[in-house]
Write a structure and sequence with these properties.
Length: 434
C-alpha cells in the first residue's frame, strides 16, 4: 500500500505562501521555460540530425550546446526594421501577446506535491484554480489574437491571409482539445490540475481514457502548429505566413519563442492530465513508497516531459505536411464528432458506475449513441464522398480512353506489319551542319 496522500496538495494549500516564496517559484518557472527553450531547440536539432544520419550542431560549444545561445544573441543584435506601412503599436504588441499567455498557461502545471522550499512547506506549483484547465484554454485563445494582429498590422496581403488561416487552424483544434478534457472532468470530478493528478493515483487517464488521449495528441500538434500541421509557416503561397513582414530580429525571436512555449505548454498539459503528472510510473511507485514524496516527483515529471517532447520531434522527422483542406476536415469532421460520441459514452458509463443501477441499460445506451454518431459522421463525410466520386470519374475516363485506343492502354504503337530494321546502319551526318 502506498502512503502518499498526505503529500498531495489540494486547493486549500494554495494562496497561503509568503510573497517571497511566490516570487521565487515564479522565477524558477521562468528560468525553467527559458532554459528549456534554449536546450529544447538544441535537443530537437540534435535528435532530428541523428535520425537523418547527421551530426547537427557541433561547432558552438561542447556538442553544439551554445548554438541556441548564439542564435538568440544574433537575432537580438540584428537591426530592428519597420516596414513603412505597418501599424507600429500593434506590430510590436503582437509578438508579446503570443509569448505572455504561454508563460501564464504553464503556471498551473504541478511539478511536485508539497515540498520544503527554504524552510516553507509549499506545493511546487505556481498557482492552482478551481477552473485551472479552463484558464489554460483561455490563454491559448488569447494567443490567437497575437497571430491575427501580427498579420493584420503588417498591412501585407500575404501576412493577413497567413494570420487568418493560422487563427482558423488554432480555433478549430482548440474546440476538439477542449472536448477531449470533458471525459477527464467526468472521472476526476474537478477542473483543478493538482486534484486531477491526485485522481490518477491508481490509473493514468491515458490508459483509462485512450480515445481522449489520442484526440488530445492530434490536437496538440494542431494547436502548437507543429508538423504535420505547421501550415502557418509552411504555406508556399503565403511566403512564410503571418510573420512574413517580421525581419530576423528580436520580434521574430519572440514569435519563435511563443510557438515553442506553446509546444512546451501542450507537453506539460499532456503529462499533467493524461500521464499522471509528477507521480512515478507503476513499477517504481509500487515498490518504493517514498517515490512520490519530496523532490523526487520533479524527476518523474521531467522524464515524462522529455519523452513526450521527444515524441513530438519524432513525428516532425517522420510525417510530411498535410494540405489545408485535410487539416480542417480532420478537425471539424472527424475529431469533434468522435469526441462528442466518446463523451456521451463516458457519461453513460460514469452514471452507471456512480449510481450502480441499470448497468446494462446504460452500457447499451452508450453503445447505441456511439454507433449513431459514427453513422451520422459517415453519412456526412463529404471528404470521402468527393474522393469516391473523383476515383469513379478517373476510372470512367480511363475506360473511355481504352475504348478509343485499345492498343497499349491508350498509347499509340507502331503497326505490326512494319519491315524489320535490325542491322540497318545509322546514316552519318556531315560535319559543319546544324
Amino acid at each position: 500500500m502506498i502512503h502518499v496522500l498526505a503529500a498531495d496538495p489540494t486547493l486549500a494549500d494554495f494562496g497561503k505562501d509568503p510573497l517571497w516564496i511566490t516570487i521565487i517559484k515564479a522565477v524558477m518557472l521562468f528560468a525553467f521555460l527559458m532554459l528549456g527553450i534554449l536546450f529544447g531547440v538544441w535537443f530537437e536539432r540534435k535528435l532530428i540530425s541523428r535520425m537523418q544520419n547527421r551530426y547537427g550542431p557541433n561547432r558552438a560549444g561542447k556538442f553544439g550546446l551554445l548554438q541556441s545561445v548564439a542564435d538568440g544573441i544574433k537575432m537580438g543584435l540584428k537591426e530592428d526594421l519597420f516596414p513603412r506601412t505597418v501599424d507600429k503599436m500593434l506590430y510590436l504588441l503582437a509578438p508579446v501577446i503570443m509569448v505572455v499567455p504561454a508563460f501564464l498557461a504553464f503556471s498551473i502545471v504541478p511539478f511536485a506535491p508539497m515540498v520544503n522550499l527554504f524552510g516553507v512547506q509549499t506545493p511546487l506549483q505556481l498557482v492552482d484554480l478551481p477552473v485551472a484547465v479552463l484558464f489554460m484554454l483561455a490563454m491559448g485563445a488569447v494567443s490567437v489574437y497575437g497571430v491575427v494582429l501580427a498579420g493584420w498590422s503588417s498591412r501585407s496581403p500575404y501576412a493577413l491571409l497567413g494570420g487568418l488561416r493560422s487563427a482558423a487552424q488554432v480555433v478549430s483544434y482548440e474546440i476538439a482539445m477542449g472536448l477531449s478534457f470533458v471525459a477527464i472532468f467526468l472521472f476526476a470530478g474537478t477542473l483543478s490540475t493538482s486534484e486531477i493528478v491526485k485522481a490518477q493515483e491508481q490509473t493514468w487517464f491515458a490508459v483509462l481514457l485512450i480515445p481522449s488521449f489520442v484526440v488530445y495528441v492530434i490536437c496538440m500538434f494542431g494547436e502548437a502548429a507543429r508538423i504535420p500541421f505547421d501550415l502557418p509557416e509552411g504555406e508556399g503561397e503565403l511566403v512564410g505566413g503571418f510573420q512574413t513582414e517580421y525581419s530576423s530580429s528580436l520580434k521574430f525571436a519572440l514569435i519563435m519563442m511563443g510557438e515553442y512555449l506553446h509546444t512546451f505548454t501542450a507537453t506539460g498539459i499532456a503529462v499533467t492530465l493524461f500521464l499522471g503528472g509528477w507521480r512515478a510510473p507503476f513499477p517504481i511507485s509500487y515498490f518504493w513508497e517514498a517515490a512520490n514524496t519530496g523532490w523526487w516527483p520533479v524527476l518523474w515529471f521531467l522524464v515524462k516531459f522529455i519523452l513526450t517532447f521527444s515524441f513530438i520531434i519524432w513525428v516532425r522527422a517522420s510525417l510530411p505536411r498535410v494540405r489545408y483542406d485535410q487539416l480542417m476536415s480532420l478537425g471539424w469532421k472527424v475529431l469533434i464528432p468522435v469526441n462528442l460520441a466518446w463523451i456521451m459514452l463516458v457519461a453513460a458509463v460514469r452514471n452507471v458506475v456512480v449510481n450502480d443501477d441499470n448497468k446494462m441499460l446504460g452500457i447499451g445506451l452508450g453503445v447505441i449513441v456511439v454507433i449513431a454518431a459514427l453513422a451520422i459522421w459517415m453519412r456526412f463525410d463529404t471528404v470521402n464522398q468527393r474522393r469516391k466520386e473523383a476515383r469513379k470519374a478517373q476510372v470512367e475516363a480511363e475506360f473511355e480512353e481504352l475504348s478509343e485506343e485499345p492498343t497499349a492502354g491508350g498509347f499509340p504503337v507502331p503497326p505490326l506489319d512494319l519491315p524489320h530494321y535490325h542491322g540497318v546502319q545509322r546514316k552519318e551526318i556531315p560535319s559543319g551542319t546544324n
